[in-house]
Amino acid sequence: MQLSTQPYKGTQDYYPEDQRVQNYIFSKWHAVSRRFGYEEYGAPLLEPLEVYAAKSGQEIVNEQTYQFADRGGRQVAIRPEMTPTVSRMVAGRRQELAYPVRWYSIANFIRYERPQRGREREFWQLNADIFGVPTIDAEVEIICMADALMRSFGATEKMYVIKINSRKLVNYMMAEYLGLDLIQSQLMIKLFDRKDKIAPAEFRDQAAAIFDADEASAGLKKIGVIVGAKSMGDLPPEILESSAIKEIQVLFTLLREHGVKSATFDISLMRGFDYYTDIVFEVFDTSPENPRALFGGGRYDGLVSLFGVEPIQAVGFAPGGTTTKDFLVTHGLLPNLNPSTEVYIVVLGDVLKGAQKLASNLRDEGVNTELDITGRKPDRQIKTAIKKGVPYMLFVGQKEIDEEVFTLKEVATSQEQHLPFSRLVSAIKDYRHKTKEVFD
Amino acid sequence: MQLSTQPYKGTQDYYPEDQRVQNYIFSKWHAVSRRFGYEEYGAPLLEPLEVYAAKSGQEIVNEQTYQFADRGGRQVAIRPEMTPTVSRMVAGRRQELAYPVRWYSIANFIRYERPQRGREREFWQLNADIFGVPTIDAEVEIICMADALMRSFGATEKMYVIKINSRKLVNYMMAEYLGLDLIQSQLMIKLFDRKDKIAPAEFRDQAAAIFDADEASAGLKKIGVIVGAKSMGDLPPEILESSAIKEIQVLFTLLREHGVKSATFDISLMRGFDYYTDIVFEVFDTSPENPRALFGGGRYDGLVSLFGVEPIQAVGFAPGGTTTKDFLVTHGLLPNLNPSTEVYIVVLGDVLKGAQKLASNLRDEGVNTELDITGRKPDRQIKTAIKKGVPYMLFVGQKEIDEEVFTLKEVATSQEQHLPFSRLVSAIKDYRHKTKEVFD
Questions:
Q1: Are A306 and A376 found together in one domain?
Q2: Do residue A397 and residue A299 come from a single domain?
Q3: Is B243 in the same domain as B366?
Q4: B47: which chain A residues are within 8 Å (Cβ-Cβ)?
Q5: Which residue range(s) make up the domain with A95?
Q6: Do B370 and A36 touch (CB under 8 A)?
Q7: Do B357 and B305 share a structural domain?
Q8: Are A307 and B2 a contacting pair at CB < 8 A?
Q9: Backbone angle region of B35, left / alpha / beta, with phi > 0 → left and psi within -120 to 50 → alpha
Q10: Per-10-residue mean pLDDT for chain A, 440 residues long?
Q11: What is the ipTM score, two decimals?
């Protein structure tokens, strides 16, 4: 039987050049999370299915989760998102933790999606969450982090917009302005969430069908007012009366004070998950080539208490690797990324033992060193080094070993230096210092 | 409904203090792999089931793999190991790659195991593999890496032993010395693999049952000779005639030349996977408290060609996170690991805005800064900082903001310094420089 070399549908092989892009994105995720005082945690890939059944939303659980019975008959799911898991972890140690808890993770997730641009069945996400802060300062911090993350990739304020809304305001609008009951509200929220993905006529028809028959015409007019509102001031007074509006106004004032320039109010923003309770936000790419939501977050104060304990307030956000990469490519923000290998030793003649000793010494000094152990002719070794993109070649024959002076060639410039061991190390370290992505 | 806070059976929540241990182990895995010129890749969590069916071994596939039909009816497995996947990836780009290919990955895996010490259903592994080298130099490099990895954790030669054997030698022994046919050989190899886990009498009985009835008595005697051999010289001449013996002797000579002191020959070492074709090795903890195999590896020249292409030689190894951690704990090699957060800002009075500005400036300078945004009394903020283990506290009130001089307190020593912003940054960076795990 011949096996296919293709990866499983909707998943991706990350060859070294792809993994370098991942590592670049992850390094920014680590750095910005740590800058804000968030500590990394890790979590299981598998969870009991009921962890998601309560609050993730029916689409996620019924249509997108890989679920199965294990060999002991337990219903298990491969995690489709992190929020229920991290809520479970906080609940499990709620009495020992120091609040506010600030945690982040970088992890892989699986959803059963129809593969398309920016949507894969396996994807990587940063999750950053703060627990135990009831005030709007938590939202301020999380949105500042999202903004700092975009800036850390070199994005300028024109390249993205942070749309902000409030579930409380949405609920108020659904009940008080549109006159919908709870079930109708749920349907309308899901419909708004799909608004940009369906035709305007389809949105109208489906919206009309949600209203009671005699209210549909008036209801559609009201929806027209909402959808047409360009700013908060355009909203009808019945909505502006909501206390949620004041909270949003405070949030925008604070974000301005913190130098967040890309934030904007958008009453049609919903977010798919059922667990959000208050402020929600999404970061959108403004490029016409990639006009999509990059990631989002919000407040989900009720989720921790599903695990049988008192409520613990929570605000978080979760950018994805693929959407981030698409954003960086669209805006030309992805830098050239070098292999981690710094020097390739080309072995001239029958001196593998001496070359191995040199490789070992370089490694002891912290130089990432690849040694050609094939015994091939030098020109084939050189071809391999160039194909791999290693920045330096080091030529080692009997003469070099005897004289302890080695020829170091920088591939990009073809410049050659003849150096003793000590200067070899510093020459390569200088290069690393110039080109290395900072990771701390 | 009240949900449990327990993770799924056999999986682990990595709270920040656990994740720091993971990160410490991963940082060594990254560093040593890169030192040897290996480039990181990433791979899908899910694979078509048939990828494992061919060569991973029946126990893995039938008893230990989480497998299911996806919503499109495809038979899928959560990866229980990386070797088949990386072989698939090499096969998929076999014509474009520069050989020898040197790759590594750090990834999570799932096996259906009965949870016990060092064995979890979800576990993390480094996989490092070299492709395209037919000579013993590939084994030398991989075993040197395994040894360098142990040394990078501070292990000394007495703490571990690298047991080395050859599948070719085993096959020769089974056929030529014990007179077994292919099926009997397979059974005997599996039995040897379990030898240390079962009682001697049980091993004897099961071994006897594998032989043809009239050969059992003579066969058991021969097995006694093999098992009793303390070194290669104790083996019977019929086995020493095998060409595989010469290869092993060359390997040991080269390993000695490379300074590997912990290597030893062990003819009873088998390794569980069916895909190994030649040299195999396992690293064992020598401590009586943790007398287990830590990890292993070997040559698997036939696996890439299952994906419909010419054979590409391969040698690799795969240490696990949990066994590594157990080893480090057993030998007292795990260092104190600090949180990534470096400074906790305690806000004195109604100056959150000014404190936020300071936090933002510190972050811009690369300092990992947690800001207390709760408005609590200072003593409660201080308690939180101490509980989190953050090494520095920074006290910020109106006076500090006005005078631009801040009080920095090192928690461990209770030492206080009054510093302007610029010296604040350098004081904290000095600390980081002293304590940080090097990751490059």
A1: no
A2: no
A3: no
A4: 7-8
A5: 16-330
A6: yes
A7: no
A8: yes
A9: alpha
A10: 88 96 97 98 95 73 85 91 95 96 97 76 96 97 98 96 95 93 92 88 94 92 89 89 93 95 92 86 92 92 87 96 95 95 97 95 96 97 97 96 96 95 90 56
A11: 0.93
